[in-house]
Write a structure and sequence with these properties.
Two copies of one chain form a homodimer. Chain A is 38% helix and 15% strand. By secondary structure, chain A is of the alpha/beta class. A seven-stranded mixed beta sheet of chain A has the order 2-8-7-6-5-3-4, with helices on both faces. In chain A, a hairpin with a 6-residue loop joins strand 9 and strand 10. In chain A, helix 4 (82-94) packs across helix 8 (233-242). The first copy, chain A, is globular and about 60 Å long. At the A-B interface, helix 2, helix 4, helix 8 and helix 9 of A face helix 2, helix 4, helix 8 and helix 9 of B.
Chain lengths: 365, 365
Amino acid sequence: MQKHIHGGNIYKASEKYGINADDILDFSANINPLGLPEALKKTLVSSINSLVNYPDPECKQLVKNISQYLSVLEDNVIVGNGASEIIFLLFEVLRPGKVFMPAPTFAEYAKAAVKFGADISYFELKEQNDFKLDIDRFIKQIEDEVDCVFLCNPNNPTSTLVDTGDLLKLLKHCRTRNILMVIDEAFIELTVGGNSNSMTGFLKEYDNLFVIRAFTKVFAVPGLRLGYGLGSTDIVKKMWDHKLPWSVNSLACSIGNILSDDLCYLRKTGDWIAKEKEYFYGRLREFSCLKVFEPQTNFALIKILLDGLTSAKLGDMMAAKGILIRDASNFTFLDDKYFRVAIKDRKSNEKFLVILDEVLKSCKG
Amino acid sequence: MQKHIHGGNIYKASEKYGINADDILDFSANINPLGLPEALKKTLVSSINSLVNYPDPECKQLVKNISQYLSVLEDNVIVGNGASEIIFLLFEVLRPGKVFMPAPTFAEYAKAAVKFGADISYFELKEQNDFKLDIDRFIKQIEDEVDCVFLCNPNNPTSTLVDTGDLLKLLKHCRTRNILMVIDEAFIELTVGGNSNSMTGFLKEYDNLFVIRAFTKVFAVPGLRLGYGLGSTDIVKKMWDHKLPWSVNSLACSIGNILSDDLCYLRKTGDWIAKEKEYFYGRLREFSCLKVFEPQTNFALIKILLDGLTSAKLGDMMAAKGILIRDASNFTFLDDKYFRVAIKDRKSNEKFLVILDEVLKSCKG
């Protein structure tokens, strides 16, 4: 079977450590800890009878909801089975010869690039710069053969955010060179400022922009499989043509109204991230044997400064106590000292801190 | 947007004919009219909270349930986003040079074959033989270059069933020629005899057999997106490796127990199909301007004998009265005289017959 190296596999952990899946605190997956919005839960329950019908293959209502949410035309919206399907579909229809992207970043871009025969070159995000992207250096390093630049913003796993001013500079540069700029904004609603950090406002003016989004993180529904893409009519049409029919299930099709019906949830989400991010970051920084990179969204990248302790070993010790972290050693340019943790609700974060403290103390001594 | 030519698009019909989607009787999709089993509904509702976790990428519990249901090893089971994902994935990993299949048949095989560069040759099922497959003639026509034969059993849209004796003859022939035999059994539980008509019992002995199945039709959950494939360890492993991660959503992952928990539902399904198939077929045959091919599963292929009336026109007239049929003119070797109808519960079937009668009378007269 396929080796899955992403976070969030509580089933494997449950089996490996003999802990009931429900008793595991999963800090390896970066999901909104406010959980499913109540309105969404109601919609889902009331939609169960609709499973006897095939999903609408064009997901019209959902596309309409998304277009209204972000003020884009319906012809510029494609929906898919999570952001994953959007990423693979994009490479499938574009078949770029060469892709340039900052790294470390989400591994699915490279996986999709390799699958569809693209060359990848990386722009290394440096630890000494706290993994922040220097947009001018990035632009300078875009070679002539590059067809497509791929950015994750905020970036996974570094939790860094590039501001829209810098991104616009890059977008303009790309347009003059006929390069498509793809931005994965899966976590954008989980930043302070939310959609104001998004590039979606530039879709009307820039044909060379493609934005990837998902319901997964912000509405805490990774199990539902719902992502979407926003881009030029031409690319979006090609993607619809190549898409597996009905890959978006009926329940996922039915939840588009959450984008307008529960603004309260989005506000609460904003309040939580603004407050909890600072608190958790502050507390994590108290560990002298860790280097914590300042998070801009609902997860933090952390480096272990303790000799002899690897992220895999730390992960094992934490998991034995019912807490999963994401070993980040398999990200390009990172090594076995890095791990990633989600930022959750205060109670869970407190529990995490206590157990992390216990485990680190036992390592030191 | 993609043109979807399958049955079951009640959303488009609702828009086109100005009828509420809930008021449409959909005879174009071949779903078990007993509806969602109650046990399944309960499982789904109680699983909604699990949407906050990523689905198990290996769907272990589901794979286990399927392996027990059909007495096959877990390593021989792959699950996917409907039978569609299984079909496309199979072509993706096999990349057969040449595929041979009877036609008319389900169009997705050809679509997947074309996508992955396979040549297709068809064995024409003849109307004068009531579209029944002559296995000896089929075997004789398998050319040396064929890598893979593809059968749908019972076949969509002809509703014909090949018995396991004939299929075994074909399977043995294929093995001597190193040909993979793929059988899509999406409707097998909706035949009289159910799983006794299945080839799954030969999986242990024949490495060159691959069986496609789905929860879609038998448990009336096309909206959930859940299909599976059964084949050699080697092919199944390759398919897992190429699969889009998490394409099976958490709710679909959670319903495997229905295969063992609700045998009563399967028995009721068997009773219904045995009885209703005969009744509906008998009543349909009373229409002198139609030729009805004897159904072996929960749908029937019908030919219009009336000059000037096409299946598209009939479909339009029926839809205006709230009943959808499946125009079958786009199936290979069929023309604009053919349509397909599902066999539903008695009450719906009666309503269908009344409206069909009205519409046909208005055409004649």
